Amino acid sequence: MSRPLIVCDCDEVLLHMVAPFRDWLGESQGVTFAMKSNNFSDAMRWTESGEPVEPADIWRLLRTFFETEMHRQMPIDGAVEAMDELAGRADIAILTNLIDDHRDLRQAQLGAHGIAARVFTNQGPKGPALQAIIEEYRPSHTIFIDDLPQHHQSARETIGDITTLHLCGEPLLAPHIDCAHAAGHADARIDSWAEALPWLHARLDRLTPSLEETE
């Protein structure tokens, strides 16, 4: 019988990204990063002039960060332990919005932190990529974990039978992120692994047939 599948995002769910990105920008790129809303681009300004960083430079800086500075990213509290524990009950896959050339870097990065899971890269809404992963694994049920509400909306609009957990483990970002649960696109919004892990176990308990039911 097929196992459940957990498809999990990486940045701000498993690993901190905004905080090390902010530190690197200030240390070496002449950019001040301050989150004051849910608009990522508004957070970045050239330190010397105070002018906003243009989109082309934002993408250049993000690409450079992921090519050279991923070693700065440390695990969200409890994330590694949660993935290890959940792997005993479900298949784990990582769906991360990076360019495809960065997939191997992300795979190695997560492996170095003790998260041994297959990595899928994606650009844009995650619903279609999630559907392709489900078609490959053919799980008994799928649980999707992500920090951004638009990806939960995409998942719900693309896939009928799916459980979604909105989790943003980065305190710099979480207060500014619209709640996918409140919008009706996630089954829960939980921003710490200490609370999310029991919720996920309870959900798996309901999804996994008992031995008596399979006999």
How would you describe this structure to a colleague?
- With 215 residues, the protein is an alpha/beta fold.
- The protein folds into two domains: 5-16 and 74-214, HAD superfamily/HAD-like (Rossmann fold); 18-72, no CATH class.
- Helices cover 39% and strands 14% of the residues.
What order do the helices and strands come in, and which of them pair?
Elements: E1 5-8, H1 18-29, E2 31-33, E3 44-46, H2 55-68, H3 79-86, E4 91-96, H4 103-112, E5 118-121, H5 127-137, E6 142-146, H6 149-158, E7 163-166, E8 188-189, H7 193-207, H8 211-214
Parallel strand pairs: 1-4, 1-6, 4-5, 6-7, 7-8
Antiparallel strand pairs: 2-3
Helix pairs in contact: 5-6
The chain-level structural class is alpha/beta
Estimated helix fraction: 25-40%
Largest sheet at a glance?
6 strands, parallel
User: What percentage of the residues does DSSP assign to strands (E)?
Assistant: 5-15%
Based on Cα principal axes, name the global outline.
globular
Question: What is the architecture of the largest domain at the second tier of CATH?
Answer: 3-Layer(aba) Sandwich
CATH class of the largest domain: Alpha Beta
The N- and C-terminal alpha carbons lie at a distance of 12 Å
Number of DSSP helical runs:
8
CATH topology of the largest domain: Rossmann fold
Tally of individual domains: 2
